[in-house]
Design brief:
About 20% of the residues are buried. Helix 3 links the parallel strand 2 and strand 3. The chain is built from five helices and four strands. With about 160 residues, it is α/β, with parallel strands linked by helices. Strands 1-2-3-4 form a four-stranded parallel sheet, covered by helices on one side.
Amino acid sequence: MCAQWSEEGYMQERKPGDSYSGTIAPFDSILKVVDEVNEHEYGAPLIIRGGEPLLYPHILVLLAHIKSKGMSLSLETNGVLLKKYAESLVKLEIDHMIVSVDGPEEIHDHVRGVKGTFARLREGLQELEKHESSYGYKIPRGITCTLSGYNYQGLGA
């Protein structure tokens, strides 16, 4: 579904589901970029987005580092791993979350190509709300959607 997998996308030589064998920047280099951005634009807002950022092995350390610099932080996620990370994200008091939803459950799962992704997203949001209540911090959030021939008729219904 994601344009990264299209003919023009950088993942074009791979098929969805293949593991990524490319090079990810060393973690200390990523932290250095955050520090440099903060030096020049103190408190600059950062949006951490896809593929799926919650798949990144050091995501919580990265988010904590960004927050420790006083930077505004927005996270964009498909929500499939949100249940696992909900408490940590609330504790970090991230500033904003964008959740990618492709339509009602049947359409969302069809567009994503995996049955159950909508249910996992819903469970993740419920877990997030549970921790928001217990910690007294609500993460403001929005929804993003890519309009396509697969979902436009199911939106707004």
